Amino acid sequence: MTAQINFGYPWFLSYGHLVVSAVALAFWLLGRARHWSKVPMVLIAAVTLWSSAAFLVARFYLNVNGRLSLPTEKFLVSGSGRVLDMGAGTGRSTLMVLEARPQATVVALDLFGESFKQHFGPGQTGQERLLSNLKAAGVDQRATIQTGDMRKLPFETATFDAVVSTYAIDHLGRYAVTAALSEASRVLKPGGEFLMMVITKDLWLKFTFGPLLLHTGTRSAAGWTTLFHDAGFQVVEQGPRPGTLYLLARKP
Fold first, then answer.
1. How large is the C-alpha radius of gyration of the chain?
2. Closest listed residue to residue 184, CA positions, set 166, 220, 160, 168
């Protein structure tokens, strides 16, 4: 059942370093056979070692195509409730919530537009890919797929017990982020929680991808905390994950 789940992130994020390793190793063997000088051989060996180590980090530590786990057990401790997944994509965060909180239901919202195609490529529609993953995990009966914009949510005020957003809201510009957080606050019930996970340029991400993985929405923890406070939230917990910053906020 797990083998059928495909989150659709580009292959090179997980396996691209193997191509670099293979090419570098081929040059190293060629240089050894032709007795190249020490300097190029050392440089080629360094590239080979880096790309091999970076592959291990990308595939087994960052694991962008793997299942997500909740970064904190303080999220939705009741174990039940109606949750909105803002920017659900192919379903990593939706599955994260449904599997960690088996009494909860999730509305998975995404525009499923051009940005989706840029991230996950052509093929099935976004809704089809998401539904396929939900069915493969056996949780589709507790999820609803909704097309919509997180900056203007198509829901009534105070209709959700919690909101989650992973690696989505940080793709927006400053004003769009403000709008999305304000909308999240609007649709949450008093006391409702918002769990956000965003990309951060930590040591492992810099080592693995360097300037190749550009992400203009990267902000510091203090910057995100300010944005949450401006939207009326109280940040109750924050912390790091591999390549990730998470914040858990509550609506008063």
1. 21
2. 160
Burial class (CB in 10 A: 0-12, 13-18, 19+), 170: buried
Residues spanned by the domain of 21: 2-62
Q: What are phi and psi of 55, to 5 degrees?
A: -60, -45
Which amino acid appears at position 78 of this protein?
S
Rounded-to-integer distance, Cα 17 and Cα 214, Å:
17
159 and 209 in one domain? yes
Note whether residue 185 is domain-resident.
yes
Please name the helix (run of DSSP H) or strand (run of DSSP E) that holds residue 171, with its range, or none.
none
Beta bridge mates, 244:
199, 241
Residues 124 and 243 both lie in one domain? yes
- pLDDT reading at 243 higher than 70: yes
Q: Are 246 and 202 in contact (CB under 8 A)?
A: no
pLDDT tier at 1 (50, 70, 90 boundaries)?
Answer: very low
| CA pair distance 175, 99, nearest whole angstrom | 33
Could you tell me the two tokens for 121? 């490529």
Q: What is the pTM of this model?
A: 0.87
Averaged pLDDT, 219-248: 92
* Average confidence (pLDDT) over 17-21: 94
User: How much is the mean pLDDT over the chain?
Assistant: 90
